[in-house]
Amino acid sequence: MPIPKAELHLHIEGTLEPELAFTLADRNGITLPYSDVDALRQAYSFTDLQSFLNLYYELMDVLRTPRDFTDLTEAYLARAAAQGVRHAEIFFDPQAHTSRGVDLDTVIEGLTAALDTSLARHGISTALILCFLRDRPAHEAMDTLHQARPHLDHISAVGRDSAEVGHPPAKFTEVFAAARDMGLRCVAHAGEEGPASYIWQALDLLKAERIDHGIRALDDPALLTRLAADQTPLTVCPLSNVRLRAVDHMAHHPLPALMDAGLLVTVNSDDPSYFGGYVHDNFQALHTHLGLDTEHLRRLARNSFTAAFLDPDRKRALIAQVDAHPGW
Ligand SMILES: Nc1ncnc2[nH]cnc12
Ligand SMILES: [Zn+2]
């Protein structure tokens, strides 16, 4: 069994495997513009973040009913358990659903039906992170936050995702402040394709407690010093970065350099059905292409629990499981 780990950067909509997309399309009477599973899988070839997002939003159309969201989440949890995941903090994109007529109650009812039984069925504790779409206006994010008010007992944090360049974090300063006032924690995608200055803004303006991706921090030595001093976790997604060409080859991925700079780095799968692997597959890629050794891989597993929004007792117990696990 792979080493126990937490997954902290996972878009539930990005776990939609082609087979399930066709099953849900059939169930909902939708015709996908692909002849079969293989034709759809062939479309999984991307030149940048936007080329992926186009397909990601298109395929979401098959998600219509609570049961669809439950089946999607259940399928992810089963795969994650087999990869050693013991805790998952899961992003979802409400605006991508409400904008096409699927209401927030439907999404949350479906997701939570699977999450509520996850610990008993799969040994995975969970948290839900509501993401605002960066390429939509701030007032829409604020409306989404208010719509989420009746569901706050199911939501741990807010984040922000979708297209990055041209959408600096400053745009969401008020929305994140309002989320904090509602008792939510804050994380933010920054520095995936966008510049290091977006990471500074995510820290200083959004008060993000974790940076999702953050690989462009390496362009800015003062930022590296800050991230190392504060031990602000980065949720790095190696296979995603290579598939979206933020990094040209796994052998050149900056994750080892970020660890060497003293940052609290974690490994995650982002959108595993689109990027060729789940979280342990990312560990495997780091070992194969970058030669990360047992000590580094074990440190990454431990970091994932350190960086998690977990209650202290479960955090301690899961770190003890890492320490007791032989190898990685
Ligand atoms: N890697 C990513 N970056 C930004 N937005 C996303 N939405 C889903 N995956 C994403
Ligand atoms: Zn992401």
From TrEMBL:
Domain Adenosine deaminase: 4-324
Cofactors: Zn(2+)
Site label Important for catalytic activity, positions: 213
Cofactor remark: Binds 1 zinc ion per subunit.
EC number in record: 3.5.4.2
PANTHER family membership: ADENINE DEAMINASE
Source species, domain of life: Bacteria
Binding positions (Zn(2+)): 9, 11, 189, 270
Reaction(s) this enzyme catalyzes, per UniProt: adenine + H2O + H(+) = hypoxanthine + NH4(+)
Entry keyword set: Hydrolase, Metal-binding, Nucleotide metabolism, Zinc
Enzyme class: hydrolase
InterPro entries with a match to the protein in the record: A_deaminase_dom, ADE, Ado/ade_deaminase, Metal_Hydrolase
Annotated residues for binding of substrate: 271
Task performed by this protein: Catalyzes the hydrolytic deamination of adenine to hypoxanthine. Plays an important role in the purine salvage pathway and in nitrogen catabolism.
Protein name: Adenine deaminase
Family statement: Belongs to the metallo-dependent hydrolases superfamily. Adenosine and AMP deaminases family. Adenine deaminase type 2 subfamily.
A GO cellular component entry from the record: cytosol
Organism: Nocardiopsis aegyptia
